[in-house]
Protein 1
Amino acid sequence: VPGLCFLLSLSGAITQKPKATCPPCPPNASCVNGTYCTCDPGYVSESGQKFFTFPLEICTDINECKPPFSIYCGPNGECQNVEGSFYCRCVPGYKLLSGDVEFKSSSENTCQNVTPSNKGKKELQQIVDQFEMLLTNKTLWEMGKKQEVSSTATSILQNMESNILATALKAPGQKVQKVQNSTMAIETRVVTDNCSEEKKTFHLHTQMNSMDIHCNDIVQGNIQGPSAVAFVSYSSLGNIINASFFEEMDEKDRIYLNSQVVSAAVGPKRNVSLSNFVTLSFQHVKMNPRNKKSFCVYWKSTEQGSHWSRDGCFMIHMNKSHTICNSSHLSSFAVLMAFTYQEDDSVLTTITYVGLSLSLLCLLLAALTFLLCKPIQNTSTSLHLQLSICLFLAHLLFLTAIDQTESKVLCAIIAGALHYLYLASFTWMLLEGLHLFLTARNLTVVNYSNMNRLMKWLMFPVGYGIPAVIVAVSVASRPHLYGTPDRCWLHLDQGFIWGFLGPVCAIFCVNLVFFLSVLWILKRKLSSLNSEVSTIQNTRMLTLKATAQLFILGCTWCLGIFQVGPAAQVMAYFFTIINSLQGFFIFLVYCLLSQQVQKQYHKWFREIMKLKSESETHTLSSKVSPDSKPTEVGDIFPGQVKEKF
Ligand SMILES: *[C@@H]1O[C@H](CO)[C@@H](O)[C@H](O)[C@H]1NC(C)=O
Ligand SMILES: *[C@@H]1O[C@H](CO)[C@@H](O)[C@H](O)[C@H]1NC(C)=O
Ligand SMILES: *[C@@H]1O[C@H](CO)[C@@H](O)[C@H](O)[C@H]1NC(C)=O
Ligand SMILES: *[C@@H]1O[C@H](CO)[C@@H](O)[C@H](O)[C@H]1NC(C)=O
Ligand SMILES: *[C@@H]1O[C@H](CO)[C@@H](O)[C@H](O)[C@H]1NC(C)=O
Ligand SMILES: *[C@@H]1O[C@H](CO)[C@@H](O)[C@H](O)[C@H]1NC(C)=O
Ligand SMILES: *[C@@H]1O[C@H](CO)[C@@H](O)[C@H](O)[C@H]1NC(C)=O
Ligand SMILES: *[C@@H]1O[C@H](CO)[C@@H](O)[C@H](O)[C@H]1NC(C)=O
Ligand SMILES: *[C@@H]1O[C@H](CO)[C@@H](O)[C@H](O)[C@H]1NC(C)=O
């Protein structure tokens, strides 16, 4: 047989290759230098010779997986020999991260445990199903009592979090797990390294929402084993723990939940306070919300039940479809939206802005007049001045900051400042009433100047002190009722608004009594004596003006009370228009219609004209007559309007 083979191969070699020099090589061998045969890579000759010419030499496969080679494929990897070669593969139950089957060496080993992760996925699915059962269990939710509903929701949410985290930590090999169903979607992620990369964040995404969390906040110093983060979106839980669980809810706020409820949790260290903000992105349920405001809230659990709260959560960006929030702690989160009819009504908004701007201008002019117009300065004008300043500041704050509701603390401070400034305006009005009353009463009393001095002394402590006391008491009793979700003003529930309306109504009534008695005193005086008529008339005029002012300012806020019920819309218009006109009214009555002030205006005007004409004559050196009288110019003031009321 060997002889026959030799002859056959010889003949084959001769027929294939006419090159006589190369010997016929056996299978799995090739010719080198045209003189020798050598086994192919992965084969070895049975004789052990590397180069040979004997054509019956046999090249056999080398088993690289057995000694002496014993290729190492890394953990959970095994070597697999094939003809002329070998490869590595993962042991059963493990898989390459890439999904491939073969790899070449231990350096390419990424074998992952797949069996437990399938188990993990199944467990997660079980959690989802269990949740679905809880959600549809009517007996759980139809207890009626809000407090119980909120406690049930809290315990379910907390159970969910711990179960999901436990499941994720059981299969640390599976870095990312996702499960989704109609009621909830879960994504978990396991972190095994110790966040050596600075500023590394993880992005988790479920259905419509996503979360970015800093690696350090997941690991929380736990370097012994893996840590996990879970992000869960609940699509229908918001129907149960809806906006009526908002802690700042009151009847006039129309608030609704405009996102899914999401939960974020880390483990095994369950510290919820974070060193960096966690950023949450919510897709709105209702697109294109009409109002421009949304609140990021979290589910705060307390002894007395749970509710949505804004502490530590704030909105950083919002557009038609998304709201993005930052939070300093982990919990369950959602986005609330609020809108009021005022915001719906662009006409009302325009009136407010135009009217208040006009008011601000008028108040500024009035304040400047009271301050600079020397001839009219007396106790009465200094009272007007303080009133104008308070109203100016109040309106300015109202215009610029009434809707700065993003930060709860800032909003509460704004509400407190507004409360103080408006109250101070009213206190100064009360002082005006008191001043008029004393003036009238003291027309006959000798120590008038004494009274006047007392008034001057008491003015500032009373005018700025009383509102401060009222605000301080309000702050001390219920600080959380400063600032509502849609505007920085006092809350309407628990009668808190009476901290403002109460003093206003009281001042209104007291002033009314003052004015009526002043008029009565003056009437009696007028009939009894005919001297001092001018003083009496003057005082009467002031009283009438002050009464008008009282109605303009006082009634406005009384109208504010009626902004509920069927006539709310009309009342809102009245309120806004009259409120906006307060500044204009003060300027009109005390400056434009006052003869003394008019005279002063004329004087200033003349001076300005003189300066102007002087400078003109200087610069142009023309023949403009220097005594051009600007008397006619005075007609632009309604000076001819007689001080008649
Ligand atoms: C080695 O030889 C055998 C038998 O002729 C053949 O089946 C096999 O394909 C050869 N191997 C290689 C790598 O060429
Ligand atoms: C084949 O030829 C090369 C160069 O011509 C030489 O370096 C080598 O040693 C030769 N191999 C053998 C087995 O003779
Ligand atoms: C619903 O919840 C109640 C109270 O936990 C429980 O007793 C009942 O078995 C649940 N029903 C279903 C259908 O799961
Ligand atoms: C939830 O998922 C499970 C398993 O994937 C499926 O059998 C069930 O029908 C799903 N439920 C809903 C409401 O989609
Ligand atoms: C984190 O890992 C790196 C590299 O593995 C190591 O040098 C460092 O000491 C570790 N840090 C901590 C806090 O364990
Ligand atoms: C909240 O849910 C309760 C009970 O399901 C419902 O009566 C109420 O109208 C809801 N409130 C809001 C603001 O959606
Ligand atoms: C929780 O984390 C915060 C911030 O990282 C840290 O200040 C606080 O001490 C931690 N609390 C506990 C109980 O570990
Ligand atoms: C929100 O959080 C992210 C991540 O911590 C941070 O980079 C960003 O500055 C925060 N934005 C604001 C407005 O605080
Ligand atoms: C709204 O903001 C989100 C997140 O920043 C962005 O993905 C989306 O494209 C924005 N949509 C519009 C209509 O601007």
Note: The chain has three domains: 19-61, 115-339, 346-599.
Protein 2
Amino acid sequence: MTDWKTRTKLIHAGARRSQYGEMSEAIFLTQGFVYDSAEQAEARFIESGPDEFIYARYGNPTVRIFEERMAAIEGTEDAFATASGMAAVNGALSSMLKAGDHVVAARALFGSCLYVLEILGRFGVEVTLVDGTDLDQWRGAMRVGTKAVFLESVSNPTLEVIDVKSVAEIAHAVGATVIVDNVFATPTFSKAVELGADVVVYSATKHIDGSGRCLGGIVCGTRQFIRKVLEPYLKHTGAALSPFNAWVMLKGMETLDLRVRQQAASALGIATALEGHEKLARVIYPGLAGHAQHAIAMAQMGAGGTVVTLEVAGGQAGAFRFLNALEIVKISNNLGDSKSIITHPATTTHQRLPAEQKAMLGITPGLVRLSVGLEDPEDLLADIGQALAQV
Ligand SMILES: *Cc1c(COP(=O)(O)O)cnc(C)c1O
């Protein structure tokens, strides 16, 4: 199995079949498991193998297939699934940190990721935020004893691309664990572990499901980190992924590569066509040669991803007029869905941030985040064009 290429692993890795030999992965919609004897129950609580289950908060066969499949494509020894992407982010950080520890994080983060860092601060973890695109700031913030580095490899929503390889080298020099939220890079374009990430986190809600059905998350890392550090924290605090949702994620993985490659191709086409549009002050897409980190994006993903961020002329009023005029593209706040979705971060996902912080992060009133779906890109461009005409 280790020789298989990613697209084969996406379909088959981690598969388990019951005595019925079912073709599609079974949904083990069970909270618990029956033991043959009291002795077996005792033994399993002491040490359980990969196919010995105790309680669905600890693990479940359907969830286990999802975990093994994700570890296989990410290139890590193991993985642990969670109820949502935020449970994965919180689990990865909280399981390894304690009061007095120091964390360095990129400042351009999803609003909820910033909130988790605030919670850590309340519990005595010191957090230093840096401009993730400036390696000197990473170097300057690192100290002997820095425990973890946290970043989104491509930031939400301004699509800053962070040089994971260089940041990992800087972090490893002081012995810090590098935790990468890789949602925007997607598992298809991810080389995070190859680049030096120790732990890779995904919201499976996004591209992995890909049809906007279920919440889910996953943390991928070494067996030592996943089983000895993360699992005790997660199994006792309860953010377990439901077996049904794990099954939906497995179905999503079967088409993940096809979907994400098509969405990225459409995103590039749309970004290219919109560059220089009179109603747009900026078109931000890592796949465009003019993007500030275009070379890094190409080196670490080989593509620009599935999201295009636009700055509409006329501030919030212009952005709202644009959103309200769209017919195919839906106003919502998911991304990675087969349906194209548009979001106004300043008033939704990043509403909570104070005005100065929004300004510093480039989340301007006219900024909109377009998650490109699987519709015909010509229809999408026509829809965007007619909506921009109304701005
Ligand atoms: C959506 C998202 C999350 C959170 O995932 P949920 O599944 O919604 O909990 C975390 N990080 C990034 C970058 C995201 O886009």
Note: Residues 84-86, 89, 110, 112-113, 152, 156, 181, 183, 203, 205-206, 215, 217 surround pyridoxal-5'-phosphate (CB under 6 Å).
Protein 3
Amino acid sequence: MMDRAALRLILLGVFLISASLGVKKKQNVDIYSFYINSTVTSRYATTVITSRVANTLNESQEIQFEVKIPKNAFISKFRMTIEGKTYDGVVKEKEEAQQQYNQAVSRGQSAGLVKSVGRTLEDFKTSVTVAAFSKVTFELTYEELLKRRLGKYELLINAQPMQPVADFKMDVHIQEKPGISFLEVKGDLSTGDLANAIKTTRADKDAWVTFYPTRDQQTKCKSCGENGLNGDMLVTYDVNRQNPNGEIMVSKGYFVHYFAPSNVPRISKNVVFIIDQSGSMSGQKIKQTRLALLRILSDLDEDDHFGLITFDSEVNLWKRELLKATEENLKNAKSFVKEIRDRGATDINAAVLAGVDMIKRHPREGTASILILLTDGDPTTGETNIEKIMANVKEAIGTKFPLYCLGFGYDVNFDFLIKMSLENSGVARRIYEDSDADLQLQGFYEEVAVPLLTDIQLKYPGGSNLTKTSFSLYFNGSEIVVSGQITDNSVESFTTEVIAVSKGSNVTYQDNTMTKDTSDVPPENEDFMQRLWAHLTVKQLLDRQVLLKGQEKEDEKKESLKLSLKYQFVTPLTSMVVTKPQEGDVEVANKPKEGERGGESTADYYDSDLSHYPVQHSLQAAKIIAVDDFDLYDHPLPTYMYDHPLPTYAFPTMHTTTPPAVQVHSNRFLLPVVGQSKPLCFDVPVPHKLRLLQDSASEFSMNGESLSEQNGFHQIAIHYKTNHHLIISTKSISYHNGQDNVEILWGQELTQHNTDGVSLVVLENEMNVTMGNIGVVIISHKKDGVMFLWPAIWEYPKDVNLTGVLGKSDISYVKTNGSQTPTLKMKDKEVKTYLETVSDYRLHSTPTRECWLVPFQAVMEAEISDFTVTQL
Ligand SMILES: *[C@@H]1O[C@H](CO)[C@@H](O)[C@H](O)[C@H]1NC(C)=O
Ligand SMILES: *[C@@H]1O[C@H](CO)[C@@H](O)[C@H](O)[C@H]1NC(C)=O
Ligand SMILES: *[C@@H]1O[C@H](CO)[C@@H](O)[C@H](O)[C@H]1NC(C)=O
Ligand SMILES: *[C@@H]1O[C@H](CO)[C@@H](O)[C@H](O)[C@H]1NC(C)=O
Ligand SMILES: *[C@@H]1O[C@H](CO)[C@@H](O)[C@H](O)[C@H]1NC(C)=O
Ligand SMILES: *[C@@H]1O[C@H](CO)[C@@H](O)[C@H](O)[C@H]1NC(C)=O
Ligand SMILES: *[C@@H]1O[C@H](CO)[C@@H](O)[C@H](O)[C@H]1NC(C)=O
Ligand SMILES: *[C@@H]1O[C@H](CO)[C@@H](O)[C@H](O)[C@H]1NC(C)=O
């Protein structure tokens, strides 16, 4: 076994070298068909991904299937078909699935098939051994209920088949009984040449979007390459709403009611912003918060009242009272906001109580009150006991108005925020630490900006097993959804009644629907409403469990488990067991968790995520790394261990599960090591957009974009503070700082530009950039007629915490003796290595140097995806 593994490594090692030399590898896996079929019936989306793959090699090999699905969805089916036999994944209770897996594999760890990637997607990955010249079909189904936000629904589909596919088809069919009011197709798959492959067909109640790119289009598009397509399609739409009572659908004993009136006057609101200004908010976060608050203040309506509270270890009220949003008051508030500075500890308890008090002291008839807490950390001063804080806040608010909690970044105790907001009829949202954090904050505010109704109660005489029927607020652009069963199926009509308060007066919406009217539901998915009901019920049960205790909690858990099993949903309580053709080879798919703290959250709360497009992000949940079984090549049954969610420190190109032809080219980075004659080097496959260097303290970041089949970077962007932006391409250099716009061409005589803390020096094909205390050199190279850029850092500033692909400067290693394969010891880990060569593009002369090639993960202690960005 050792030999087999070693041989494979050597073979792949040879491949690696040839790849760096740019020699094309013979394709030995053929994905000859890749279909994505998404059907949306009354907001309930069922998506089926089918990939058919042939092993074109004269020996058996591992073939991989990897797709990305929305976090909000539940996987409901997975099937592999090999040589006429089907292997279906079976959903079981989590513990039972784990046992089965453990029995199959004496080692205890679960080979997680699913992991969380970025803000809105999860990655599903598996592989199977396929005999010589045989074929395999993978089929994955997931289901989700599209949520209306800011007046629209969004269906997000990711496609990344890993190679150009002769028969690629994406079919989306949307059927909405009240008719579709608008439909738009966005996302990177709808740009450039690929847009020609998209066809949209609209009828009254149906819309079809098809995307059939030719093989040629899949290789020639801007973001495509030898790996084919890689991107998202985002279908955005809304439905007509002629009936103010909402839309009711009945099918096979189940109903769903969509309630979203818009013809209602807005209610003026009392909103208090409680802003964390503790030390941890320093830098970008506090700056973005200020920016967002300034925009939000500008958006307030004149009859709104507002309050501002900032807190660290002290609580500061801008004004003791809520003030009307007059021009004068807003002007003063903005001056206050501009002066918000980070300092001190975090007293959440005192701050929230001050906010509650502010609202309660000024009751205004016929208005809607909202508390918004923004924090990035744990309570560290004042009352720090989370249970006590929750009790205090709950008692103070007394169900009178909602508390929304926005958790900024990943240091925050998100479970605590979820509980506290749920207890006070609000939601918790995560604000991802990124360049668009201000927009995320503003986007959240926009969703709650226009309250139309308060105290909404929905009633369904003759309905049972109802999902949630009481809501504290209804905002314009959102939608209230209730589903349930109809107790007496023989009744002719079904009545809905909604009672709510609109600007202080009671309003009632009443409607009657004929139950026999099911003609709108096509027979092939007439079960959808039952599944929709189950989906919504399970989500709400899981939400509520956070708040329950004891027997009640057990009962609800049992109920949601029962439904998850009946409808074969992979939820936080269940797992899907995938048994493979090879004897005893078992994998388990779990719903990944994101907030790493605490016990039982949180994937489901991604429901309430502020995740607007663009979504694919590198900012992941803190992926805690604890590698205890590092030596994976000696594992007796190595195949599934490659899917281990923890970093395996394996060479990406050496995954036996990855068809080698897929990764044909990489950028190789050189990493000098103090006290060692040979540097380290590591590969990052292209194409990609990478975070190269970042210093949050001085708000400096440098990102680079690589194209496939090309060395280096074709564009590098450097950002400093909020106003300095430097975009370097192979053609020209452009710099903006809010006042100056500077354009510099490569290949010129000495050109210099110096302003506050920024120095740019360009001479021929070298550029020196200094921003604050960070200096980088960008070299423009030309190789085989192709221009590319390469960044170099000759001096690392002291006492600065740099991150990014080039951020490591303090790495060390010791060469260990003995074993056949050369091994390095790095940070107490044994790392297998190869003596390789690297072109040192940090110098014009591009000397070739010998280096120890190690996996990216071994150097960075993170995944490559942790360093990818969506925008330069
Ligand atoms: C998608 O599903 C529909 C209905 O089952 C079917 O008619 C259509 O051919 C499918 N499209 C693809 C690309 O599989
Ligand atoms: C596969 O083909 C190669 C060359 O065509 C040959 O050397 C090798 O023996 C074959 N392997 C098997 C298992 O038939
Ligand atoms: C609610 O949203 C709709 C559609 O966006 C808009 O036409 C309407 O004016 C809004 N209502 C209020 C009160 O802002
Ligand atoms: C639905 O409600 C009925 C009682 O009204 C109950 O007997 C039944 O078990 C419920 N079904 C589910 C799936 O919860
Ligand atoms: C609205 O209804 C509630 C409960 O039915 C009642 O207590 C309240 O007085 C009503 N308010 C108005 C303004 O009619
Ligand atoms: C850029 O910086 C490097 C290293 O500090 C220096 O050797 C080089 O002369 C500088 N180039 C220019 C054009 O100033
Ligand atoms: C860098 O990070 C470490 C640990 O996170 C911290 O102790 C140190 O103060 C930081 N240094 C600077 C200059 O920010
Ligand atoms: C490896 O062997 C050499 C010579 O035998 C010895 O000097 C060196 O200390 C050894 N290194 C390690 C890490 O054991």
Note: The pocket of 2-acetamido-2-deoxy-beta-D-glucopyranose (ligand 4) is lined by residues 464-465, 485 (CB under 6 Å).
